[in-house]
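It is worth pausing here to work through a concrete case rather than discussing structure prediction in the abstract. The textbook approach is simple: state the sequence, then state the predicted structure, then interpret. We follow exactly that order.
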Amino acid sequence: MKFLNKYIRKYWLSFSIAVIFLTFEAICDLLQPTIMSKIIDIGVANKDLNYVFKYGGFMLLITVVGAIAASTRSILASIVSQNFGAELRSDLFRKIQTLSFKSIDKFDRASLVTRLTNDVTQVQVFVNGLMRIFVKAPLLCIGGLIMATKLNVHLAVVLAVVVPIVAIIIISNMKIGFPFFMKVQKALDHVNGVMREYLSGVRVVKAFNRFDYEVDKFNKANDEFQAKSTSAIRIMAIFSPVIMLVLNLGIVAVLWIGGVRVDNGQMQVGHVIAFTNYMTQILFSLMMISMVFNMFVRAKASAGRIGEVFEEENDMSWKDRDQNDSIKGRIDFENVTFSYDGASGDPILKNISFSCLPGETVGIIGSTGSGKSSLIGLIPRFYDVTSGTIKINGENIKGLNPKIIREKIATVPQKTTLFTGSVIDNIRWGKEDATMEEIEKAAMMSQAHDFIMESPEGYHTRLGQGGVNFSGGQKQRLSIARALVKQPEILILDDSTSALDMVTESKLKESLKKYASNLTCLLIAQRITSIIDADKIIVLDDGEIAGAGTHDELIKDCRVYQEIYHSQIGKEVE
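Step two, the predicted structure:
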């Protein structure tokens, strides 16, 4: 829970002030029964109306003071807890952003969503409760015990028996409840995961009419969550009635013992009434303490899950220094081997060595699973190599800040991702301060300008969720425009022209040659026609380089390239 130290240091003063007002409120509540006993035993017993009015007015004044303290405490509690929750959620989101892909892969995506939302809310609610009732309950309990004992030692024997029994029940409650609420949060992760998967693939579900299957899958996850929640609540629910029973038996004992002592003239009626009120306050406070521990168990489980994210260290390291800019756009792979963390079997990439010179267009082709996407994911340091070296502009990227590397690189991923907003907003993702001229130039290069202008509002046309109002090829061209407006040294296109027709793809490549002649371009493709005229072609097969060279060289000497050519073009290689 070390991550909480930051917030404790920041909010301790406001928290303390709220607790001070809470203490005043508790003191006011504790004074009421004693004053009432005096009114009954002195004012009423002696028929002294002035005494009754005097102490009755004093009770009213104390009530007003308590109400003011309660209102102030409530306002402070709301402000502190809301600010704390917002800052914790923001810090957690920033922490997730700083993690490498290797670190993020340790967490299920749905679990991260749950931690950002439900888990933060659980901790926030507990902090809010600390300043409302959770601190007041122990104050009332301890204060009630002191005032009751001071009022009548003989009746305090009942408290000496009741309080330890209740304390044992509460401790048992906490120990038993914690594992159950951990299971509840994991079950909620599963529900979020199923829902997230459905929403991301809703078109496929509709296309295949698999609504019943998805409903059944969600119902299973939902039923599991319900079962886990019910089990946890059922276990916790046993303790409250038991505590209530013990405390009510204590009140019965007080009334019985007090009644006997009043009959014998050993105690006044006001003392019995006051002691009963203190017992009621203690009953209330102990019930609240029980609820506190229930909330604490949930908050502890959630805080532990949040702490796991904060404790996750970024496995990437670098030295704070600038990159060499004398040779822009050069990439060197030197005996690179790579495996995903925890993966079994052979490495994804094995002893990869090649160079991309500034201004070159390098095509990378291979069968599905040959390691193409894994290879280009190493260049921006999404992952670090297992062994070997990758250099950009002559510098080993392991010694460079990923931010510096990514400023020089623009990547168009295999899966097109567009964000809710306008077309111009999405293109400006590549460069926040891009001018309209730069945006239009990038759109023209990516062959997106024409269809953008044909849209009702041109560059200000709004995109639906994920760009649903554009075709697959249009979304790919918008993604390429977003990359080009950045004016990078290195452009990586990861099978991002697969939805383009041959003519559009040809125009795109011509534009890149004409307007971005100094741009180093890595073009990953499934279609051989997409990379056939590249300056260099790398052929991958089972994570190894099966061949490297121009199309003419590979068609003569590389068996794997010949097989791809024959399967796609349909001509035998002579």
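Step three, interpretation. The chain has two domains: 2-311, 331-569. The chain is about 65% helix and 10% strand.
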